[in-house]
What does this fold into?
Amino acid sequence: MGQTLIKAEGLSAGYGQTPIFRASDFELMAGECVFLCGANGSGKSTLMKTLAGLLPPVTGRVLRPTGARVAMIPTGIPKVKGFTLREFVMTGCFSRSDWSGRLSPEAENDADAALESLGIAGLGDRDLTRLSDGEFQKACTASALAGKAGVLLLDEPTAYLDAENRISVLGTLKKVARETETAIMFSSHDLSESASVCDRVFAIGADGMFRCGSGDGDEKNKVISSIFRNKNIIFEG
It folds into this structure.
């Protein structure tokens, strides 16, 4: 993997002074795809908001290289009628527009490159409301890439998708991480499919522990199993 883009030291996230898991150290590195799992209410979204700088840590700190951009993509972004796919992706570049709102040729090229990397360039002129949910999820990811985000945090990107689109979106995330040297972390309840594409697993367990697992399937499966309170549940990826 490449350089460290996010480093958490003694980090615990939460609201107010109540942590959702015990203080932990971990890193997100360029080119890797990380699966974040945990039960409903375990704090996956809260952790992502903390890593993105939207919430302050309860304990510890989050370190990023100077100039590193972090983008969080929440679930349930609406499809707005009247916007084409390419126009939507270009909104990720608006922070780089001039005083009149015009984008530079470089920014437009970045948007086109993001569309290509997600495999949806051929849909650029299609209205958002005519995209499938899987295509639109890829468009949301492309918008963040076009904005030169080095770290992408995706909250439930496969929610509401059918099996074919889930597999397509997850496979695309791994491909994009590799090809663009982006660090991608995504949360999901699709355990087997997510474990099969990720490089590492982060799990917020029912016991309040934060665990990391990488390498072969056995190690990742062991970490995923930690999220269950009922020890009669056995996960096999």
